[in-house]
């Protein structure tokens, strides 16, 4: 913090300062009372509503620059801080405020033969760094999760949203101060210099974990270079397996939703596996739905006679399709002998993200849940449900495709750790 | 696995083969039934007892080589597979067999507004690699924890214990086979070539986590070079803080045990902090105990008038002492103003391993538990209790000084992960 007006504020120096401030704030965030945290979250919701107009003005600067830079229209749209987006963010803060506070909770306390009582206390991890792109509302999601979980955070949003993010971060810090919490509990990286990211991910003395949200390239780059743990979200190659026996109506509805409700999310189904015994009853109906919605079907040879669609919408599947995340109106389809082959296919080609079975067979359901090695395993439900809000986590900081620490949608709990608590009456070890 | 008798078996090729075999075994280990796992563990206990004599012979080879190589006597002693050590290992297996099986357990299942029910299932991590030194009984501890937790593991013991480890691993594989489990569920690296370690820690396609047990140098090197997560155990700079008010008798007994019951474990206390208000009542008595046991006291100036001991046993403390892990009959002693200063000192100089307060003040106890940022925090108990067995974990694969994933003593649970389970009746996302 030896910055004077004479020394230029380099990215290295800026990040060093943010790191020190975050570390200092973290110990105060960790012991914040339940009511302080709830108060900060409710105040933030109120500030977002009060400043909706002003935020539009800040956002407008980002939008104009984006258009001037020739950003594609969908990207510009993701940048937009519509009043509805701000209202959703405000409601998210209020929901988090209303949820039970899990910090300090002691679980499993029991007495052991020596007489000591041992349990585990849930505590914040410390400081997390978040790296994300475009959508400025992620600033509020991350900040509100940091407050609720008692962590400090350093946020690095996309350069295209810098004015919006600065305005939002200022409101967050105002809310923190009003609740008697340290304003450095949530800090936005004020520079768009890319060098700052390199420093953020390499400060183990200040930052305990990095959460990147963005494309595969970004996440792989960060994982490779980070000197601290990274909560990674790689591909979502999700499967729906239509089992024999199953309710064919349900299978059509669930598969339709899993593929077509939205094409771009990571939890959309990319591969449909169908048990041979139900293929003739299920596939023609399913294909009709896909044909009507313009979904391209990439099919194995035995599937082809069972599906009808305009010529352009059907083509032979290739080996590479089984491990491709389309994020588009495309689905690969395979007939399998039954449950064993389905599980084998999923564990081999999938990305361990989210996979579902549609079945009426209890034992098949149990085996699928147990043996499919994915972060979310589902019976008779659409893969699209794999989401922090749908799972009741209150909010989601990301989805982990790792097995270590947190797996699947990561909410408040994923930002915490358990420490052992030992209560004695003077016991010593023999 | 293209090894023929013509191609030499390089460390790279050996580790590739072990990795593939472990990965294949892992999916079978993960779905092993409770009774299969218990049966394997009980059989292993029985085999250890039946082969106690034969194991002595194998162990003798290691001992003779160690002596010939001029290994220091304490090191040779750690190598020794005494019948008592084998009996303890056998009992450990039986205890694990008798413990509840947590794999497949679903927690927190609840219905959400969409109608889906969501919970979390405890599942094995997959494959862990363990790197350890000297004591061959660690082979049995690691193998039994792998079996109980449904993981596969690759064990790399110290080269000085290779014959003992090979004999023990053969018994483990016999026990696995007898229970209908894959023998590759537990594999020992058969070569002592150091290059093998480099491969083991850099196979993310086969190995999910690495657990090193050994000196700081080993652990830092592995953490730096590993391409997968590492459960790290760095320093144990543990504190006992004697608070005002406290039971002075208890404070003397607990501090004595924390420092002198054994000097070499990581959970032995290295620094004693004493509240000013109890210093005059506590320190002379405590110093008398340390003086009698030959413990060197490194003291701040205000401590010196309160302690009496032979001249050689008292010297002024230096700044570096506060962050030194002695693992020896040495203790640093400081008088602090009270709880705030004690917590600040511990969080600043400690290693976030294990710290204890001796106090009669309820509010101080609660603040200490909450605010000291360590893996184990204790009230009125000896820091020496920080141990998987003492905590009732059944066994301990290591102690984590990280906050990510597992913290503190790591038992079966630390070798598992939680996956989301979603049960529906055809729900789709709106």
TrEMBL record, chains A, B:
Instruction: Please give the pathway this protein is involved in.
Output: Amino-acid biosynthesis; L-proline biosynthesis; L-glutamate 5-semialdehyde from L-glutamate: step 2/2
Q: Which GO terms describe its cellular component?
A: cytoplasm
The alphabetized UniProt keywords are: Amino-acid biosynthesis, Cytoplasm, NADP, Oxidoreductase, Proline biosynthesis
**GO BP annotations listed:** L-proline biosynthetic process
InterPro entries tied to this protein:
Ald_DH/histidinol_DH, Ald_DH_C, Ald_DH_N, Aldehyde_DH_dom, G-glutamylP_reductase_CS, Glu-5-SA_DH, GPR_dom
Report the Pfam families cross-referenced here: Aldedh (PF00171)
Domain of life, source organism? Bacteria
Can you give the residue ranges of the Aldehyde dehydrogenase domain? 12-306, 322-386
- HAMAP family attached here? ProA
The family classification in the record reads: Belongs to the gamma-glutamyl phosphate reductase family.
Know the name of this protein?
Gamma-glutamyl phosphate reductase
């Amino acid at each position: 913090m030896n910055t004077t007006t004479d020394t230029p504020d380099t990215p290295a120096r800026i990040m060093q300062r943010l790191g020190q401030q975050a570390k200092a704030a973290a110990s105060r965030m960790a012991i914040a009372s339940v009511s302080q945290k709830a108060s900060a979250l409710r105040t933030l919701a109120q500030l977002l509503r009060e400043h909706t107009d002003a935020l539009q003005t800040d956002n407008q600067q980002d939008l104009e620059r984006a258009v001037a830079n020739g950003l594609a229209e969908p990207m510009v749209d993701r940048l937009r801080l519509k009043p509805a987006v701000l209202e959703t963010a405000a409601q998210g803060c209020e929901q988090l405020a209303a949820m039970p506070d899990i910090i300090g909770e002691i679980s499993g306390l029991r007495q052991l033969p020596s007489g000591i009582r041992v349990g585990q206390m849930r505590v914040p991890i410390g400081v997390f760094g978040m790296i994300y792109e475009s959508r400025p509302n992620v600033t509020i999601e991350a900040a509100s999760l940091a407050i609720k979980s008692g962590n400090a955070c350093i946020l690095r949003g996309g350069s295209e949203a810098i004015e919006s993010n600065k305005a939002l971060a200022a409101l967050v810090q105002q809310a923190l101060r009003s609740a008697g919490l340290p304003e450095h509990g949530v800090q936005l990286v004020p520079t768009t210099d890319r060098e700052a990211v390199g420093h953020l991910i390499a400060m183990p003395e200040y930052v305990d974990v990095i959460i990147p949200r963005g494309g595969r390239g970004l996440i792989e780059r960060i994982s490779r270079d980070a000197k601290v743990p990274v909560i990674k979200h790689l591909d979502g190659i999700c499967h729906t397996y239509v089992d024999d026996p199953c309710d064919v109506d349900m299978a059509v509805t669930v598969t339709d939703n899993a593929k077509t409700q939205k094409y771009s999310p990571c939890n959309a189904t990319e591969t449909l596996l169908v048990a041979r015994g139900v293929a003739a009853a299920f596939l023609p109906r399913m294909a009709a739905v896909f044909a009507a919605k313009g979904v391209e079907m990439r099919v194995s040879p035995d599937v082809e006679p069972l599906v009808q669609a305009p010529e352009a919408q059907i083509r032979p599947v290739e080996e590479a399709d089984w491990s491709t995340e389309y994020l588009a109106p495309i689905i690969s389809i395979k007939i399998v002998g039954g449950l064993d082959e389905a599980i084998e296919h999923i564990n081999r080609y999938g990305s361990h993200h989210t996979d579902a079975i549609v079945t009426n067979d209890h034992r098949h359901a149990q085996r699928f849940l147990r043996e499919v090695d994915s972060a979310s395993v589902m019976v008779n439900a659409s893969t699209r449900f794999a989401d922090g809000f749908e799972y009741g986590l209150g909010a989601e900081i990301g989805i982990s495709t790792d097995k270590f620490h947190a797996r699947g949608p990561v909410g408040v709990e994923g930002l915490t750790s358990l420490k052992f608590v030992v209560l004695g009456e003077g016991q010593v070890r023999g």
